[in-house]
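Sequence only, no structure available. Ideas?
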Amino acid sequence: MLFLRLVPTILEMFATSIVFGVTYGSPSAAGVLILSFLVYFASTVYLTGFRTRIRAQQNVADNDAAQIATDTLGGIETVKAWSSESREMQKYSQAISAQQALNRSSQSALVTLNLTQQFIMRGAVVAVLLVSAIDYLNGRSSVGDFAAIQVYTVQLFQPLMWLGSLYTLISSAGSDMRNLADLLKEPATVRDAVDATPLVLLPTPHASQVTPPPSSRPPRIEFRGVSFSYGEVEDALLAQNSAVKKASSAASAQPSKTTSFASALGGGAHRRYLNLPEEGGTTTSASVTTGSVGIGATAGLDATTTEAPPSKAPPRKILKNVSFSVKAGDSVAIVGTTGSGKSTLSRLLMRLCDPTEGTVFIDGQDVSRVTQSSLRGSVVGYVPQDIALFNETLRENIAYSRMGGAPVAEEDVNRAMNASQLGAFVASLPAGLDTRVGERGLKLSGGERQRVAIARALLADPPILILDEATSALDSLTESLVQKAVRGVGGRTSFVIAHRLSTIRDAHCILVLEEGEIVERGSHEELLSLGEEGKYYRLWNQQQREELDAPEEVHVLVKE
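Reply:
I predicted one. Tokens follow.
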């Protein structure tokens, strides 16, 4: 639209100048016309650019004020708990004051722009008429020429009024879109490979068992030489996106050569699945069995660690050459001190982030080579530490795990609800499952939110279930009932992260992490047999002493 208006106006200006100079014999009027036209455009571009810079600062101030409001309202309980209402109000008032000051500056710049444009246009008309009047007095033009020049000049500046407003509008819109454009330019941390295929689960290798339906086949999990550093992820993003673009171009330039999953099994995939040596070499997998127990046990691991290239800021190592495997249908527990990398393992398994080194396999398939939609939800279910509930009903929050929002049978919801020990709580509510939970589930307690999240995962019935401190807010009785219900559902490989060791004593294998490395592995009894030298043994005894001492401490407090 700007082009269609600008080009005719410029052509009209040159044509009018030629008419003034040739037909009416007034080159001075033509010069004034061209000069005023150039001054109009220069002042419009300069003042609009100045206002655009103010507009960009205004957008930043708007975002800051909105962020403060969102953080304050989202953490309103913390604000009230520490009586920080006045401090938050002061922060928000300062943000609003800065926003209002920029709004006034933006409006002032707009008024200045409009006044300048009007002054130039009116001044140009007056100047042209003065020149034409002088020519008339000197006998170089007639009254008709004077009237014609006036009409031409006024008619020429009419489109300029629209052009100035249109240019200002486009510049302001461009400034408003800059934040969105910057966001869209951010590289994706995790993206599907060009040749990514859906994840296909293999049948269970236990011949004595009846093959379960495809949605409940327990898969095998393997972490092979996995390392993760936050600093290296950002450095690799640009190279990753560049490689994806090159691969896309190559894939479009030549026909795809895709091997079916069945034919892949005829090669080496079945060997990886059954943990057999590859042809011409030895396996690099380390199965988690009761025999691989010990402090810093790394026997059977051939994975090597590649040194990271030097960078300006040293990357923060979270995981260091972690290797283990989980048999189909088994449960593995991850324990360790805070910050040892337990939750990072679950994020890598769900491919919420990619390892900087090493590979994660599910049924012999590299998770970085399968589509994310076929991995999450349908194969891997997740109950995180921080429960995310929506401001909907209990029913909708529980049924959220069903892929694509498909209708959910009432009996399925009730079954998941009862398994997570929510039945009595829901029965006590006047609206039952139709009760709204409030924003982020604030109307529910921490334990109730955890049980809703567990019910959501049980309703999805994924072959792999990740429980990241999923029962930390439950009392001991409810926790034992929920764990019994989770263990009672067969055909599932479980990945449990816990600080309370009593909740994972029945796991097939327990991995002890320390500073991103596996320092011990084995069953509960095997790890306890290590004695005082074992880290798990010390953690277990410490928690047992705390549980035994808790009643005495409460008794002392009551007496005082």
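The two ends are 81 Å apart (CA to CA).
Hope that gets you unstuck.
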